[in-house]
Write a structure and sequence with these properties.
There is one protein chain. By secondary structure, this protein is α/β, with parallel strands linked by helices. The chain folds into three domains: 5-217, NAD(P)-binding Rossmann-like Domain (Rossmann fold, 3-Layer(aba) Sandwich), CATH 3.40.50.720; 231-310, N-(1-d-carboxylethyl)-l-norvaline Dehydrogenase, domain 2 (Orthogonal Bundle); 314-461, NAD(P)-binding Rossmann-like Domain (Rossmann fold), CATH 3.40.50.720. It is built from 18 helices and 14 strands. The strands form two sheets. It has an eight-stranded mixed beta sheet with strand order 3-2-1-4-5-6-7-8, sandwiched between helices. Strands 11-10-9-12-13-14 form a six-stranded parallel beta sheet. It is elongated, with a radius of gyration of 24 Å. The model is unreliable at 460-469 (pLDDT under 50). The protein binds uridine-5'-diphosphate-glucuronic acid (UGA). The site of uridine-5'-diphosphate-glucuronic acid has 22 residues, from helix 9.
């Protein structure tokens, strides 16, 4: 086994998962963060993010294969490959703000004495690679001492560890054979499949017979692959949402339509779930950044603007459904199931659920929210108000509420005890922004069920009212 000494700068979702997974596949890793409290937490066995398999892997490797430190200089000096995994937030113009990347590159420059491969793992616009190279040169680092490569990640929050160890592909954008060789060595346990034959390997879709695919490209192509992948997935979601609105207006069913479209292998069934639209720290930011990249090149990639517009409009579509199901909102008590931007994460960044809740509060409604993981984070950002409260479970949230709103696609919300829910509610109304139920099932349980892109079954309620409206 060809062990490589790796430094990962940044211990956010990407950096931390990459650091721990590099250790898992046999490398020696130093993970650097300038947040001392976070480094101490990690050193003491704490897990700062909600991510499946991360606690076990941290326990297995922390202090052994992976160490945590605030000392960037020391880490860079000791390692052959330096991965930059710091944040690239969205700036005012839509462009990614690269100031964290630049600050890290300046620090790295001071420490380079022997050959290093500097690898950008953060999502960055095309040519960032080139900029890093220029900045290092300007800071006096001779060209022979380093290469810059791009190695974008395609991790989904919630399944990031599995995505890392069992990837659809590994993309390496390297301008020199020397840099490509270092990255090939780093990923060899996955691309040659040796990791998958280990008895302690995390199971997943790759195997020794079907190892991970590694694609080597130019740095610019790798940078574009990352932006284009996220933009395409966002487009797929906006497309199905646009079709969903059409389906609804002609009383067709978007779930049947998505199944029918998805059976075409050229399209595939994934990322065709209509609903409240996408959120999170990646799609909104990357669609805007990719649009900006095209604009910088004098191209009008208007399709991306439309993707964003359709996505924003979905929240409005949902809000209008709530209003038409309940008539007025002032003083209405609503159970909001879901706060995270998607299931299996505590991340609330750009969460459609929070956007809807804010709108409901502004309209004078009272919201009782529940989320299996994101309540603490949501409390930190939603305005404190006597109209906003948090429940210990979905049933407590639903108690005496005028309606239940499903805002995030948690598995737990797809398996609710429907008779119990019905008994607890003031009115048996469920407005589902994630299409977790079949309208037929909800009608059988006596609910008025409103979902996305499917005919609403107000008749169920009108036919046999439980309580007088
Ligand atoms: C996304 C990509 O899927 C990853 O490949 C990528 O590495 C990551 O961004 C990143 O750039 O770091 P993530 O933001 O974790 O990952 O979330 P997804 O699972 O892709 O979901 C994004 C949003 O789309 C969620 O709000 C989800 O609810 C929504 N979504 C997803 C739909 O509305 N419909 C779908 O069919 C699928």
């Amino acid at each position: 086994m060809n062990e490589v000494s790796i430094c990962v700068i940044g211990s956010g979702y990407v950096g931390l998962v990459a650091a721990v997974c590099f250790a898992e596949i046999g490398h020696r890793v130093i993970c650097v963060d300038n947040d001392e409290a976070k480094v101490n937490l990690l050193r003491n066995g704490g897990v700062p993010i909600y991510e499946r398999h991360l606690p076990e892997l941290l326990k297995k490797h922390s202090g052994k294969g992976v160490e945590f430190t605030t000392d960037l200089g020391g880490a860079v000096r000791e390692c052959e490959a330096v991965f930059i995994a710091v944040g690239t937030p969205q700036g005012d113009s839509g462009a990614a703000d690269l100031s964290f990347v630049e600050a890290v590159v300046s620090e790295i420059a001071r420490e380079i004495s022997g050959y290093k491969v500097i690898v950008e793992k953060s999502t960055v616009p095309v040519y960032t690679n080139e900029w890093i190279r220029r900045v290092l040169n300007r800071l006096g680092v001779p060209t022979a001492r380093f290469d810059v490569a791009s190695n974008p990640e395609f991790l989904r929050e919630g399944s990031a560890v599995e995505d890392f160890l069992h990837p659809d592909r590994i993309v390496v954008g390297a301008g020199t054979d020397r840099a490509a060789e270092v990255l090939r060595r780093i990923y060899a346990p996955l691309s040659e499949g040796t990791y998958y034959s280990r008895p302690d390997a995390l199971p997943g879709m790759c195997s020794a017979d079907k190892p991970a695919k590694l694609l080597v490209t130019s740095a610019q192509s790798a940078e574009i692959i990352k932006h284009a992948s996220n933009a395409f997935l966002a487009l797929k979601i906006s497309f199905i949402n646009a079709v969903s609105n059409l389906a609804e207006s002609v009383e067709a069913d978007i779930e049947d339509i998505a199944a029918g479209i998805g059976m075409d292998r050229r399209i595939g069934p994934r990322f065709l779930h209509a609903g409240l639209g996408y959120g999170g720290s990646c799609f909104p930011k990357d669609v805007a950044a990719f649009h900006w990249v095209a604009h910088q090149q004098g191209l009008n990639f208007q399709l991306l603007e439309e993707v964003r517009r359709i996505n924003d409009a979905q929240r409005e579509v949902f809000f209008n459904k709530v209003r038409s199901a309940l008539w007025t909102l002032r003083g209405k008590k609503l159970a909001a199931l879901g706060l995270a931007f998607k299931c299996d994460t505590d991340d609330i960044r750009e969460s459609p659920a929070l956007a809807v809740i804010r709108q409901l509060l502004d309209a004078g409604a009272q919201v009782q929210a529940y989320d299996p993981a994101a309540m603490e984070r949501a409390k930190g950002v939603l305005p404190p108000s006597d109209k906003m409260s948090y429940a210990a479970n979905p049933y407590e949230a639903a108690e005496n509420a005028d309606a239940v709103l499903i805002l995030t696609e948690w598995g737990e919300f797809a398996r609710l005890d429907l008779p119990r829910l019905n008994r607890l509610l003031k009115f048996p109304i469920v407005i589902d922004g994630r299409n977790l139920y079949r309208p037929q099932t909800m009608a059988e349980h006596g609910f008025t069920y409103v979902s996305m892109g499917r005919p609403a079954n107000y008749e169920a309620q009108l036919g046999k009212p439980r309580k007088t409206l």
